Amino acid sequence: MVWVWNNVDTAVFARTRAARFFEPEHVFTSERLGVYKPYPAIYERARDACSALVHVASSARDVRGALESGIRVIRLRRPGHELDPTGPVPGQEAASLADLETLLRACGAEKSSPVG
Known about the structure:
Shape: globular
Structural class: alpha/beta
Oligomer: single chain
Helix content: 25-40%
Number of strands: 6
């Protein structure tokens, strides 16, 4: 299952193209959680809500926040997104969505992977 943890208000997420693909109970906006990234509580709440959690992240903020909260990370490399040189480094990286799918299947997380 894919969950969404997003740093926006609920009404803003509802207007995105992605919103139609998710049940409301699988969308955790910062407004709903009462915290915004990079505040650690957003990652801790994700960890507490999901078992077998793997966070797919591109931004340095998300990679660092999730890793420092004890969440496994697969980094999806995107242009313009570099890791924090002083921050933790994820154990796995994907260059494309096809690579990401392969990594998720290999770790058995394709059914419970939040995206942020």
